[in-house]
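Supplementary notes for students who missed Thursday's class. We covered one full example, reproduced here. Read the sequence, then the structure, then the short commentary at the end.
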Amino acid sequence: MAFYPDTSHLDGVNYLFGYPIAHSLSPLLHQTIYDALGLRWSQLLMESKDMEFFMHLTRDPKFFGASVTMPHKVAIIPFLDNMTPEGRAIGAINTIFIQKENDKRILCGTNTDCIGIREAITRNTKIQTIRHAKGRPGMVIGGGGTCRAAIYALKSFMHCSPVYIINRDKREVDTVIAGCWEGGFGEGLIYIKDETQASEMPPPAIIVSAIPNISPQTAAEHIVRRILKIMLERGRQGVALEMCYHPSPITEISKIAEAAGWQIISGTQAMIWQGLEQDRYWTGKEVKELPVDKVKLAIANAVSRSRL
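Structure (token representation):
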């Protein structure tokens, strides 16, 4: 049974809608911003699979937006009134904001994951490295909604070409590639199926890992890990963004990549910058007007405490 949250102490509310989400740092990130701006706003956890109840919450006059995570990033789309070009192209929504049209509140969806990935890489990498990556291959590990955002970022912002995809399930990759074609950025996507193919392809300059930190168990998962190691060894001194940061930003993949000489960027960086982009939509302020340093400190402290 769903329970209505108490919002009587707030002027504005948004929700983190997903399942499971108890570990998320998203409410901390946004509360840091709202407190610094003197706003009586909060992001509340909506840990549920109940789409009907969530949509009811969006009708509250205090509702100004939501962070949407798995398993709802694609499922939410039919319930929206509009989408931004990024959201429509990627086909996965992680942010809902309100637009007004003739005094009517319109639910609009976008994808700020792609912005988080772009900013995490560009703000933590030397400009020469970014320039060197242009026109060179990129690579994404995974087959979900974050994978689509990563492909979009590598192609549209980092100008990587081609973009390799490695994943334990080819059917998931086929779905991702079909979605990218539908979104207008499917050209130059290559599924790497085995070690032989990996050894024959030019190595990537940038890798985005979008899978949980779980040791390989199945034969397919071991193949993916071996492909990754081949690419890392052949493409030394590249940049690897490890999107997984829970329960620790130090993962098996980040350790392997670092040992191979790659620069590692923590997924907390992508989380911070996608969250700041969300609040750009919600507050109407540009990111440079938001308390970026306070957000970075709050997230760093939280991650340090979780590792104790």
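Commentary. The longest strand covers residues 12-18. The CA atoms of residues 293 and 299 lie 10 Å apart. If anything here is unclear, bring it to office hours.
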